[in-house]
Design a protein that fits this description.
The chain contains 2 helices and 3 strands, in the order H-H-E-E-E. It is mainly α. The N and C termini lie far apart (127 Å).
Length: 171
C-alpha cells in the first residue's frame, strides 16, 4: 500500500501546479480579451459615427442645393410673369409697384405666387424708381440662398446671411 499511497501523493502534488498555471494563463488572457474587444468596439463605433455624420452632411448639402435651385426657378418664374404684366400695361413699359394676388394671380400671369421653399416667406421685390405707385419702370427681385459657395449668388441683399440670387430689370 505504501507504493499506492506514494503514487497518489505524487499525482496530487503534480496536479495543483498544472491547475494553477492554467488559471494564471486564463486570468491573464481574460484581462487582454476585454481590452481588445473594447478597443475594437470603439473603433467600429467611431467608423459608423463618422460614416453617419458624412451621410447626414452630404444629404443636408443636397437639400440645400435643391432648395436653392427651387428659389432660382421661382425667381425666374416671377420675373417672366412680371414681363407678361408689363406687356399688358399702357405702352408695355410698366411693372407693378408690388407683387400681389391682384397683380399677378388674378390677371392670369401666375397660378400662385411662389414663396421660399424653407421659410414659406415671399421673395424680395422692389420696384423702381423707388416708392413708385404707378409707372414703375424697373424692379429688383431677390432670394436668399443657403449655399454660401453658389457660383450664381451675389453679395447678400437685405437680411440674407450668405448670398442672394437677384434679377434686376432697369429702364
Amino acid at each position: 500500500m505504501d507504493g499506492e499511497t506514494s503514487t497518489t501523493t505524487t499525482q496530487q502534488l503534480q496536479t495543483p501546479p498544472q491547475i494553477s498555471s492554467v488559471n494564471e494563463n486564463a486570468q491573464s488572457s481574460s484581462k487582454k480579451i476585454p481590452i481588445k474587444k473594447i478597443v475594437l468596439l470603439l473603433l467600429v463605433i467611431t467608423i459608423f459615427a463618422t460614416a453617419a455624420y458624412a451621410a447626414y452632411y452630404f444629404y443636408n448639402q443636397m437639400q440645400i442645393k435643391n432648395r436653392d435651385s427651387q428659389r432660382k426657378t421661382d425667381i425666374q418664374t416671377i420675373s417672366q410673369a412680371l414681363e407678361k404684366y408689363r406687356a399688358k400695361t399702357q405702352e408695355a413699359k410698366y411693372y407693378p409697384a408690388a407683387i400681389t394676388q391682384n397683380t399677378l394671380v388674378k390677371n392670369g400671369f401666375l397660378d400662385d405666387i411662389p414663396q421660399d421653399p424653407k421659410t414659406n416667406s415671399p421673395y424680395t421685390y422692389t420696384s423702381t424708381p423707388q416708392n413708385c405707385d404707378i409707372n414703375c419702370t424697373g424692379f429688383t427681385l431677390a432670394a436668399c440662398l443657403e449655399n454660401k459657395n453658389d457660383p450664381e449668388g451675389v453679395a447678400p441683399l437685405n437680411q440674407c446671411p450668405t448670398k442672394s440670387y437677384v434679377i434686376i430689370k432697369s429702364p
